[in-house]
Structures are given as structure tokens and as C-alpha cells.
Amino acid sequence: MNKTIVVFASLTFTGAFLVSAIQTTYASQAGSLKLNANAKMIVSPKRAQSHRLVVQVDVNDPALMNLALNNVSNTVQHYSEIGQKVEVELVAFGPGLHMLRDDTSPVKARIKSMSETMPEVSFSACGNTKENMAKTEAKEIPLISQAKVTKSGVVRLMELQEQGWSYLRP
Fold this sequence. Notes:
Blueprint: H1 2-35, E1 50-57, H2 62-81, E2 85-92, H3 108-117, E3 121-126, H4 127-137, E4 147-150, H5 153-162, E5 166-168
Parallel strand pairs: 1-2, 1-5, 2-3, 3-4
């Protein structure tokens, strides 16, 4: 029983101490605001915020490809409506490379249309996957004109994330 009272008293004291510290911090901040109340406030012009999104496609599934393109389109539209910049890069590798293949893409017409109206969107094709498909199929793998080849799709995703890009895998 006595141990319980000691623990309760310790917790009460700790809580009271924290509340007091928070109140002191806010009071000192409010005081500094009052001291500077006659100073002129200089507001810098609002900077246009910039956003960057990288989207991964690694599955040969038309529904998933269309979902990824919907996500890209909705993102671009959202930031356009609020007057902020956005860059979006879709990276396709593994079976997802079919999205950017000229001979097998179920969404190439949609990508062409998006590229014409959304210059902030780019498409990267994994060079490693392209080489492996060429060996397996014993032919050159044609890509749509909107696709640029990157050495490794996975490395591209990693590097963009390290640069602060947001990541999406639909």
C-alpha cells in the first residue's frame, strides 16, 4: 500500500512538473511576442511549394497499370489546382516493363496522351529488365517513345527516395 502511494505521488509530481514547464515555455514565448508587439512584421512572399513523387510498377497487370496512371493523373491535377509544382516519375521494371513496351503495353495510348498534357510526368524503363527480356525473347525490346532507359529500376527508385521523393507502389 505504501509503495503504491509513493509511486502515485511520484507520478503526480512528475506530471505537475511537466505541466509547469510547458506553461513556462508558452508564457515566455507569449512574453517575447508582447515585447515585440510594436515591431513591424515582414512577411516573405509565399513560395510555390514543390512536390516529387516516384511511382513503382513491377507487375504486368493492366488494372494495376491503369491504377498507377490514375494516381499520377490525380496527383498532377491536385497540385495544379492549388498552384503548386509537382514532378512525377513512373519507374517500370521486372514484369511491369510491359507497361512501357511498344509491342505489349496495354496503356501506351494513355501514356502518350498524358505525356502530351502533363510535362511534369516522366517514365523510366529498367535497362536490366530490358536486357534480360531481350535475351529471353531473342529479339530487341521496343519501348514507347515516352520511356527513357535507366540502368536499374530499383536503383532509380532508391536514389530518388534518398533525394527526398515520395514513394508510391499502387
